[in-house]
Design brief:
Helix 4 (346-358) runs parallel beside helix 5 and helix 6 packs parallel to helix 7 (461-476). The chain starts with a strand and ends with a strand. 14% of the residues lie in helices and 34% in strands. Strand 9 and strand 10 (121-129) form a beta hairpin. It folds into 2 domains: 2-290, Beta-galactosidase, Chain A, domain 5; 306-590, Aldolase class I (TIM Barrel, Alpha-Beta Barrel). By secondary structure, the chain is α+β, with helices and mostly antiparallel strands. The chain is globular. Strands 1, 2, 8, 9, 10, 11, 14, 15, 17, 18, 22 and 23 form a 12-stranded antiparallel β-sheet that branches. The protein has a 7-stranded parallel β-sheet with strand order 31-30-29-28-27-24-32. It has a 6-stranded antiparallel β-sheet with strand order 33-34-35-40-37-38. The longest helix has 18 residues, at 421-438.
C-alpha cells in the first residue's frame, strides 16, 4: 500500500498524430537528469530506442518487435499516433525486506503505435528512474487483434562497447550454473546447448540468462533483467558477439509452435536496465520491485521473518536420507520396511527444536517427512507419487507442531513436487488447508527434475503460470512460499509479499556433492551483483565444518568461517538457515553472531564493492537502532577501511567483530577466526583485513 503519495502527475495525454515531416523522436529523462531514453520510428516504421547515461550512449539504436504464429510480424510499418507523459513521486512500505520504505520516483513516456497497413496497435511504455529504466509493451483492446500466439519477442539491447560481463548460460530449465566472466565478444554458451536439462534443439546456440551484469571501461555498472514476469515466458538473451548486442529470446515449449499465448488486451513484463556509477548502486536499486504492482493480498503479518534450522544438510552429506525405505508401492503409496537412515523422525526433529529454542531461532525445516521419496527422482512416472498430507510412520506431524509451539519454534513445511505439476495442482488446496489448520505459515517448494507434463520447461509460460497459481492459492491459506528450482525472481514479492524467497542459483548444497568440488570463492561476490538483484535468496549459509570432514573428502565449502557469518548480512532474505549440523554449532563462540543477526531490515547501505571481487553491506535492524555489517571477498585478500558515517550521530554502539585470523585462508585454514569487541560511533574508522575467500561480520548494538 502507499504510505503517502506526492505525485506531481504531469499527465499530458497529447494524442499527437505525427506526420512524416514532424519531429519523430521523443525523450524521457530520469528525475536526476542522468539517464535519457530516446524513442523514434525509422522511415521503414521500425520502433527504436536509445539510452544515454551522463554524457555517453550505453544502448544504441535498438529495435523492438514481435513475431506471431497466425499473423505477420509487428515490427515495421508503424507510426506514432499518441504520446503520454507522467511524473510520479511516491513512497510505499515493504511489509518485510531489505528496507522499510521505498521511494518510487520516475518519469514516464507512453508511445502509442499503429500499423499503417492494418491498423494494429501497440504501445511502448518507458519508466525512467534514477537507478535505471524499465519498458514494456501493451496491446490495447482493438478489433484488429484478439488472441495472439507469440513466436518471439525481438527486443534488442545494443551495447556501445565490449563490456566485461558476468553471465550464466540461457538454460531453459535451471539457473544452477557457475558464473562466467568474459567480455561480451567472448561469451560462449554453446557448450551448454546440449546440457541434459535442455533436451531440444530450438534453444539458441549462444544465449545467457538474466540478470546479466556488465561493467564498462569507465566503471559504469549496468544489469539487464525483467520485472513483473506474469503469464508470459521467461526471457533469455541471445548474444551477438560481433556487434556486442543482446536480443530477447523467450523460453518455449515442445508442445506448441509458439512461446506465449495471450488474449488482447495484455501487457508484457518490464524489460529492465539497472544503471549505476558504481557496483554498490546495483544492489541498492529498487527498480525491480518498483516496476511491480502494489500489494494485492493485504496484511501478511502472519508471516514472521525468521532464522531456521533443519533436517536438510544431513541428506546432502549422506548421513541421513529423505526416503524412509528402499521400497515403494506406487499403487498404494506405501513404503516398505525402514532402512534405518531416515532423517525426518519425530525424535530427531524434537532434538533440533530444542536447539533452536535454546538459541532463539524461530523456525525448523523438515525435509523427507511425507511419503513418496522412494520414487521422486530418476523416474518418468512421478505424477501421483508424492502425498503432501501423509507422513512417514516415524514422523508424527501433529506432535512435532505441538512441541514446536511449546518451544516457540514454528515448523516450515516442505513440498517437493519432483516437477510433477499436475499432482501438486490436485493436492495444493488440501495441503495448504492442512498447514493452515496446524498454524504453519511457510513452505519450501521444490521442482527437481524435468517438468511434467513432458515438453514444458521450468522457465516457460506454463511454469510461470504455475508458480503464480501457487502464490495466489497459498495466500488464501496464509502461507508464504520459498520456491526452489523456480522461475527467476522479478520483484513479484511487492504484489504478493507471501513470495518470501527462492533459490534460482547454484546453492550451498553444491559444495557437498558437486563433481567439480563445489562453488569457487568468487561465486558469491558475483551472485551479489547478479542473481540477488532479482530478489531474496534462500542460499542456506552458516556452514562451520568447511572441509565437510569426514563426510565428503572430495568436497568443501570454499570460504572462511568469517565469510559464512557475513553471508547473513550480504545475502538478502527474510528467512536464513543455520544450515550446518547442530553438532558443529554447540559451544562454538562464533555461533553468537547467528543468534544475534536479524533477517528483517529498516534500511540497507552498500558500503563498497566490485562485481565478482568483494562487497560490504550494512543493514539496520527493523524496529531498533542496531546495525549489522557483513563483508566478503573472492580468492584475493582485501585490506579496507570501514567508515561508520551511516550510524546515528552522537550515539555509541557496542561492536563485536568476527573476522578472519591472520593466517586464515579458504583452502589452507578456513576455520581460523578471531573475535574483537570495541566501541564504535559515527566518526569511527575501522581497518579490516579479509583473507583469501574470507570476510567479516560485525554487530553494532546501540547503547
Amino acid at each position: 500500500m502507499n504510505l503517502f503519495k506526492t505525485s506531481i502527475l504531469v499527465f499530458a495525454a497529447l494524442l499527437i498524430f505525427v506526420a512524416c515531416s514532424q519531429n519523430n523522436s521523443h525523450q524521457v529523462i530520469s528525475p536526476d537528469g542522468k539517464i535519457k531514453v530516446s524513442f523514434f520510428v525509422t522511415p521503414e516504421g521500425e520502433p527504436v530506442y536509445n539510452v544515454d547515461f551522463r554524457e555517453g550512449t550505453i544502448i544504441s539504436n535498438s529495435k523492438m518487435g514481435f513475431e506471431f504464429e497466425d499473423q505477420k510480424a509487428l515490427a515495421t510499418g508503424l507510426e506514432i499516433v499518441s504520446i503520454d507523459e507522467e511524473t510520479v513521486n511516491e513512497k510505499w512500505e515493504m511489509p518485510w525486506g531489505e528496507k522499510h520504505e521505498v521511494e518510487n520516483n520516475y518519469n514516464l513516456l507512453k508511445v502509442g503505435l499503429k500499423e499503417s497497413s492494418s491498423g494494429r496497435r501497440m504501445d511502448v511504455i518507458f519508466k525512467v528512474y534514477n537507478d535505471g529504466l524499465g519498458f514494456r509493451y501493451e496491446f490495447p483492446e482493438q478489433e484488429q487483434m484478439s488472441k495472439v500466439y507469440i513466436i518471439e519477442e525481438n527486443t534488442e539491447f545494443n551495447l556501445t562497447a565490449d563490456h566485461k560481463t558476468f553471465w550464466i548460460p540461457g538454460d531453459w530449465d535451471i539457473y544452477e550454473h557457475l558464473y562466467n566472466t568474459t567480455n561480451i565478444s567472448d561469451i560462449d554458451a554453446t557448450k551448454y546447448r546440449n546440457h541434459p536439462s535442455l533436451g531440444q534443439t530450438s534453444i539458441p546456440n549462444n544465449a545467457v540468462n538474466t540478470p546479466v551484469t556488465m561493467v564498462t571501461s569507465s566503471g559504469t555498472n549496468l544489469s539487464i533483467h525483467e520485472a513483473n514476469l506474469t503469464d508470459y515466458a521467461g526471457m533469455t538473451l541471445k548474444v551477438d558477439t560481433t556487434n556486442t548486442s543482446f536480443i530477447s529470446c523467450l523460453v518455449g515449449s515442445k508442445n506448441t509452435g509458439y512461446k506465449v499465448e495471450q488474449t488482447v488486451p495484455f501487457t508484457t513484463p518490464w524489460r529492465t536496465i539497472q544503471i549505476s556509477d558504481d557496483a554498490a548502486g546495483l544492489i541498492e536499486s529498487d527498480l525491480i520491485v518498483n516496476l511491480n504492482e502494489p500489494n494485492k493480498i493485504g496484511d501478511v503479518s502472519w508471516f514472521k521473518p525468521t532464522k531456521y534450522v533443519g533436517i536438510w544438510w544431513d541428506m546432502h552429506l549422506d548421513t541421513r536420507s529423505w526416503h524412509y525405505s528402499a521400497e515403494y508401492d506406487k499403487e498404494t503409496k506405501t513404503p516398505g520396511k525402514p532402512h534405518g537412515k531416515h532423517g525426518a523422525t519425530t525424535e530427531y526433529t524434537k532434538e533440533l527444536i530444542d536447539f533452536a529454542s535454546e538459541h532463539h531461532i524461530g523456525g525448523i525445516l523438515v525435509e523427507g517427512w511425507n511419503v513418496g521419496w522412494e520414487h521422486w527422482i530418476g523416474f518418468e512416472d512421478r505424477e501421483g507419487v508424492f502425498d503432501f498430507i501423509t507422513p512417514y510412520p516415524d514422523y508424527d506431524l501433529k506432535e512435532v507442531v505441538r512441541y514446536g509451539k511449546e518451544k516457540g519454534v514454528e515448523l516450515i513445511m516442505h513440498h517437493e513436487t519432483s516437477a510433477a505439476t499436475q499432482t501438486y495442482y490436485e493436492q495444493m488446496d488440501t495441503a495448504f488447508a492442512l498447514m493452515q489448520s496446524l498454524g504453519i505459515h511457510s513452505v519450501k517448494t521444490g521442482y527437481v527434475g524435468k517438468i511434467l507434463p513432458k515438453g514444458e520447461f521450468h522457465h516457460g509460460q506454463y511454469m510461470v503460470r504455475h508458480y503464480h497459481h501457487v502464490l495466489e492459492t497459498a495466500a488464501k491459506y496464509q502461507v508464504a512460499i520459498n520456491a526452489h528450482e523456480p522461475i527467476k525472481a522479478t520483484g513479484k514479492r511487492r504484489t504478493y509479499p507471501n513470495a518470501i524467497a527462492r533459490e534460482g542459483l547454484r546453492g550451498q548444497e553444491f559444495n557437498a556433492w558437486s563433481s567439480d568440488g563445489g562453488n569457487p570463492p568468487e561465486h558469491l561476490p558475483i551472485v551479489a551483483f547478479t542473481r540477488m538483484l532479482g530478489g531474496p535468496i534462500d542460499f542456506t549459509p552458516g556452514i562451520f565444518n568447511l572441509k565437510i570432514d569426514p563426510y565428503k573428502p572430495d568436497n568443501q565449502v570454499s570460504t572462511t568461517l568469517a565469510q559464512q557469518l557475513a553471508l547473513y548480512v550480504v545475502i538478502n532474505s527474510p528467512i536464513q538457515m543455520a544450515a550446518d549440523l547442530i553438532i558443529h554449532y554447540k559451544d562454538h563462540p562464533a555461533f553468537k553472531f547467528i543468534e544475534d543477526v536479524p533477517v528483517n531490515w529498516e534500511q540497507t547501505k552498500v558500503l563498497n564493492g566490485e562485481v565478482g571481487d568483494y562487497v560490504t553491506t550494512a543493514r539496520q535492524e527493523r524496529g531498533s537502532k542496531n546495525w549489522f555489517v557483513g563483508g566478503i571477498t573472492d580468492e584475493n585478500p582485501r585490506q579496507m577501511e570501514i567508515k561508520f558515517d551511516f550510524l546515528e550521530p552522537g550515539k555509541t554502539y557496542k561492536a563485536t567483530l568476527y573476522k578472519d585470523a591472520d593466517d586464515a585462508h579458504w583452502d589452507d585454514n578456513p576455520t581460523a577466526y578471531a573475535i574483537e569487541e570495541m566501541k564504535i560511533t559515527s566518526e569511527s574508522n575501522l581497518p579490516i583485513k579479509m583473507a583469501p575467500g574470507g570476510g567479516f561480520a560485525l554487530s553494532l548494538i546501540a547503547e
